[in-house]
Amino acid sequence: MITSIPLRPRETLASFISRKAASFEVNASNFAVDIGTSFQKLIAGKSEAIETLSDVRIIIPEEVIAWSPTSDETPRGHRFLRQHLFPTKALQGAAMRGCPACLRDDLADCHDPGTSMAMRGHWMVPHLMLCLKHQMPLVTLWKESAALSRFDSAVHFSKLADDIVAGTLDAELREETDFEIWLDARLEDPQGGLPEQHWLDQFSLHAACNYCLMLGTSLLRHEMSAPSSVLPEDNWAVYQMGFEIARGGEAAIRDALMGLQMLPGSPQDGPRKIFPKMYDRLAYDSMDDPDYDVFRYILRSHMAATWPLGIGDELLGEPITARRLHSVRTAARATGIDQRRLRKILAAEGIVPEEGLPDAWEVFDAERADTVLRSATTLITAKDFAEAIGASRSQFDLLVAGGILAPHLSSSGDAAGTRTIWDPADGVRFLDSVFVGASPLRQAQHGWEHISKSAARLMVGPETLIEAIRDRRIVRIGNHADFDGYAALYVYHDEVCSVLSPEPSSNQTIELFSKSVGLAQPIRMRRLVMNGHTPATEMIHPKLKKKQFYITRDDADAFHQRFYTLRTMAQAHGKSWQSMTARLRAAGVEVFSPDGEDYGTLYERDRVDHVLSQVTEI
User: Fold this and answer.
1) Rounded Cα distance, 241 and 263, in Å
2) Do 332 and 359 meet the contact criterion of CB atoms below 8 Å apart?
3) What average pLDDT does this structure show over 106-115?
4) What percent of the chain is modeled with pLDDT above 90?
5) How many CB atoms lie within 10 A of CB 11?
6) Is 506:496 a contact under the CB 8 Å cutoff?
7) CB-side exposure of 585: number of CA atoms within 13 Å?
8) Is residue 597 left, alpha or beta, with left meaning phi > 0 and alpha meaning psi from -120 to 50?
9) How many Å is the Cα radius of gyration of the chain?
10) Residue 220: CB partners within 8 Å, gap ≥ 6?
11) pTM of the prediction?
12) Are the C-beta atoms of residues 103 and 93 closer than 8 Å to each other?
């Protein structure tokens, strides 16, 4: 069999096979079957499928192999392209993009669109949005959910040829950006022999590009109030904004982060508003991906040094367990002192400058200033105290009636609550006691209730739930991002019921137990049970009268004796899970998956303890 189709630069294997099939007037799937392989394997770049082609004397140019994705030796759900690792969904998604000008060039030596027009490998990279040769933005040529049809490009080009030739699909030309030049150069030379070296060159290409997009989106706050509203087709400019800073390295990034904090807004607005897109992407979406570790470290260390984080706050998904820094604003709230007066007191002690950052951002060492703050604390009224802890007056009254809160001085004769007998520091200590280990809630999804509503549903006082929280009998505590203080205190009602039921039972459903230990997807815990790695007990559901699996106390003990989740590992060792997982990776400890199944981020306890005990000893 002799290759009779013209060669195209950077063409993919799937495109080459589709054109080859078109030259025989068959579709790519049937053509692949006829020669003893499958088009699906060729799309995935399987080496055995490529070897089959050579067995039937179909010669594949080296450049085609070099610019084609391959699943050989890749983690599940990923592909290599030009030695760079990408998620399969990002690289080979439903939308097929291309440059109409390149496709018109393809017709110069062959007028049959099915056998002449070819898909290029670099068009698959989602971060590249421009053809550098023609300065034309890449456009979506077609969308198709079925992979076999999607990658049979010759069929699609035969239908699109008239529009491509007529220029109907053309987008407005623009100049290439430095980001696009850098990205294309890294694809062209995956070994890193670039004419100009950047700080970003040391990172995974996909992670580096994503970070440029994250940082660029945050930097848009300098230009607009809603950075996330930028249309996808305009992301090329956002990539460039992030790249312009990130290529300068860590110092330039930290300067940019500080600059974002100087814009309108305060720590009380939360990191999602100060660092839009970047915070959520690093804290949650890529939390298990080591390619983002350095980017996470920069943001985490920056916030740890410049944000007044206290108990109940979180830092990149990790609950804060002790306050290290106060701001003038948080200290004023904790002491009941007017911010302006408190700043003068702190300045007189040399703790903060008289003029500097805004009160919300002027941070200082909380421990160093503790004596000064204690001596300056001013007692406040019940109304101001309730407002300071974020409780309504009725909620405040219930906490007082339940013995959770008490005035600093005698309350006799203060029925109206107008005397200044309440110590705001008591309010801070109360909130600290109930928010330890709380998980951030973006929204109160099904099952989550404000503590006062959960207590009302069980017809008990909130003190009953608060005592259970303090005793660690209730552990699923949420800190709602839209509220402050007591108003943000949410509990998972099913857990509350299981703990406080009139007929208490230590048995939990697999779903409830899974969530209580930090495995967000209960299907993984069920899979762990079904595959015999941890025990569960089959019982009759009291309402449904059907058998289902429960985690008894003995079952839970067996799970904890063998496994760590990120949450239980952090609780056991008193360190951030981010730092511990980095050490585990360095020691070669992988997540538990002996049979290739996905059990989530789960580690064997004895291996973790062994590695971390060695680190401690050193």
Assistant:
1) 17
2) yes
3) 89
4) 65
5) 22
6) no
7) 12
8) beta
9) 30
10) 227, 230, 238, 241, 276
11) 0.77
12) no
Query: Which residues are bridge partners to 569 per DSSP?
Result: none
Give the Cβ contact number of residue 291 at 10 Å. 16
| Dihedral sign of CA atoms 397, 400, 401, 402 in order | positive
CB 38 within 8 A of CB 9: no
Q: Beta strand pairing status for 439-441 and 318-319?
A: unpaired
Contact 134, 102 (CB under 8 A): yes
User: What's the CA gap between 492 and 475, in Å, rounded?
Assistant: 9
Q: Are strands 439-441 and 477-480 parallel, antiparallel or unpaired?
A: parallel
Q: Within 10 A of 197 (CB to CB), how many other CB atoms are there?
A: 11
Ramachandran category for residue 585: left, alpha or beta (phi over 0 → left; psi -120 to 50 → alpha): alpha
State both tokens at 437. Answer: 């280990």
- Say which residues have a Cβ less than 8 Å from residue 63's Cβ, sequence separation at least 6: 7, 9, 10, 11
Predicted local confidence at residue 491, as pLDDT: 94
Which CA distances in Å does 616 have to 300, 447, 571? 22, 39, 16
Residue 142 confidence (pLDDT) above 60? yes
Give me the amino acid identity at 262.
M
Q: What are the DSSP E strand ranges found in 502-601? A: 508-509, 537-540, 547-551, 563-565
pLDDT of residue 498: 81
**Do 379 and 336 contact (CB within 8 A), yes or no?**
yes
Residue type at 362 in one-letter notation: E
Question: Smallest Cα–Cα separation from 329: which of 320, 318, 338, 316?
Answer: 338
Q: Is the pLDDT score of 543 beyond 90?
A: no
Give the pLDDT confidence score for residue 244 in this predicted structure: 97
Degrees to nearest 5, angle at CA 212 with 211 and 218 = 90
Tokens describing residue 361: 């951002």
Q: How far apart are CA 374 and CA 331, in angstroms?
A: 10
| pLDDT one-digit tens code per residue, 304-355 | 999 999 988 889 878 888 899 999 999 998 888 889 999 999 999 999 999 9
Cα separation, 450 vs 489, in Å, equals 6
The confidence score (pLDDT) of residue 350 equals 95
Closest C-alpha among 67, 1, 7 to residue 35: 1
DSSP code string of 243-291: HHHHTT-HHHHHHHHHHHHTSS--GGG-HHHHSTTHHHIIIIITTT-GG
Relative to beta strand 95-98, strand 130-131 is unpaired
Mean pLDDT of 579-597: 85
